[in-house]
Amino acid sequence: MANLLIEVGNTALKAAWAEGLTLGKTFRFQGEKVMDFILSLTEKEKPEVMAVVSANPVTPAEEAVLKAECRHLMILDSAHPDILQRYGLPDYLSYDRAASLMAVRYLFKGKPCTVFDFGTTLTVDLLDADGFYRGGNVSPGCRTRFKALSRYSKALPLVNTPKTFPQEGTSLETSIESGVISGIMFEIEGYIRRHPANVVVFTGGDATYFAKRMEQSLFIVGNLVLLGLAIITDDYVEKNI
Fold this sequence. Notes:
Blueprint: E1 3-8, E2 13-19, E3 22-29, H1 34-41, E4 49-54, H2 60-67, E5 72-76, H3 82-85, H4 95-107, E6 113-118, E7 121-127, E8 133-140, H5 142-152, H6 172-194, E9 199-204, H7 207-211, E10 219-220, H8 224-240
């Protein structure tokens, strides 16, 4: 039987069936009826293990529903902290972020890494060559920055992420576009200069957008969280099933 991997984020859900560490087709859902969508995935096939990483705690009622849909249920959230503690990652990390780092450890074993995750937040994490977590930072993501400018300053409009932008704005809109995007670029470049020997890994919704604007060599890796879940699940199966 295959395993079902589910990432419930702040704005969307991603899921994939997996055989060991091999991910199948990825599903994406954005809406309020998250449980209904998960049940639609298990309607025809029940997974051996269902692994769920969630930005918000899974309620006892939701946990009961999920348990009925699989042989084994593994949850990574603030109410189930024990699993990731086994892998030497600090408990203050969000669980999706920790799962991503598990994937980076696997993909770039033996190499120090700087990992940028471009989503609602921009997270930057550092792993040394032994896979030891050296720390990381969190700042607002791209769209979050645009929204914050509009929300907290009544004089500024909400603008969309631009396809192109000047280095210096020549209107209010282009000033906002250039200010936000250039600011993130300078931020990225600063971290890379601070750790020049590290492999640079981009992931998240805006990863490709910013990667196209970088001169440095880097890796864009999609579905890092799901791959991390696959690694943790495979380890769980080996030790418990």
